[in-house]
Fold this sequence. Notes:
The protein has helices at 7-19, 35-47, 75-84, 95-98, 110-113, 117-120, 124-139, 151-163, 193-198, 201-214, 220-234; strands at residues 2-4, 24-29, 50-55, 89-91, 143-147, 169-173, 238-246, 261-269, 272-280. The chain is of the alpha/beta class. The chain folds into 2 domains: 2-173, HUPs (Rossmann fold); 186-277, Pantoate--beta-alanine Ligase, Chain: A,domain 2 (2-Layer Sandwich), CATH 3.30.1300. The strands form 2 sheets. It has a 6-stranded parallel beta sheet, sandwiched between helices. It has a 3-stranded antiparallel beta sheet with strand order 7-8-9, with helices on one face. α7 crosses α8 (151-163) and α10 (201-214) runs antiparallel to α11 (220-234). The longest helix is centred in the middle third of the chain and has 16 residues, at 124-139. Adenosine monophosphate binds at residues 29-30, 36-37, 39-40, 146-147, 149-150, 173, 175-176, 183-186.
Amino acid sequence: MDHLADPTFLRQHCQKWRTQGLTVALVPTMGFLHAGHLSLMDHARTCADRLVVSIFVNPTQFGPNEDLDRYPRDLPHDLKLARAHGVDLVFAPEAGAMYQPDHAAWVDVPELGQVLCGASRPGHFRGVCTVVTKLFGLVRPDFAVFGQKDWQQLAIIRRMARDLELGVAVIGRPIFREADGLAMSSRNVFLTPEERDKASAIRQGLLLVQQAVQAGERDAAKLGLMFRAHLGEKLAMARVDYAELVHPEALSPVARVEAPTLLAVAVFVGRVRLIDNILLEV
Ligand code: AMP
């Protein structure tokens, strides 16, 4: 497995593969890899001849008061995991290698990027789209694999790739969970033992809403309140940032669940902001 930090070397490496007629898959990450990331790599491995994983805590997707500085990092361990999962190349640049001091070009999908997480994290998805575009430009992958845990991110990248003709097949993969249902996240390490213990209430709340839909409830406002009430009872220390029922691609609010609808939630548990979602089928 190769490990590169220089974007130019990355470009050359991937260019060489393409001239050999090899297909390339990319899995972008911020590192501190867990089984959710590894499930993306395992799938990507089956899609293409070569697999590139990027590990980059992208500063432009963090707001001024967010956790950029304390975001967990462990590159040596990540490299071991990547090697064990058949990754051909890990690209782990420094921020200075990815952004010139006078960096001025941005990619944005405002219609999808200003709702849900974008409402409480202004500029977040502009940072995501910009760095993913740069990675696509360097690697020029045939396939890029993203997790449905970040459903909004996946919807935005799909739209960006389609609208800008980026020539990448964007693949979404299911949420990988802990045994008690908590969605795996690099940020889970920041939960105190008590918070961690109770955080499975988020998943339980999503399942409760799904059961209500299956039992015939269609009113999105009622279903959203049901999730909030469940958290109020089971995870009283949490603050719900949002719990919204939206169209799974347009991300626009729905009033009634008459077609597959995404219930997307973000919850502050102590200082940690956790996101999760469920696709409600009727
Ligand atoms: P991150 O390192 O958090 O930026 O995540 C990198 C990629 O892994 C994104 O496409 C995420 O959606 C995906 N991912 C993170 N957590 C999970 C999970 N629990 N299950 C599946 N994919 C995940």
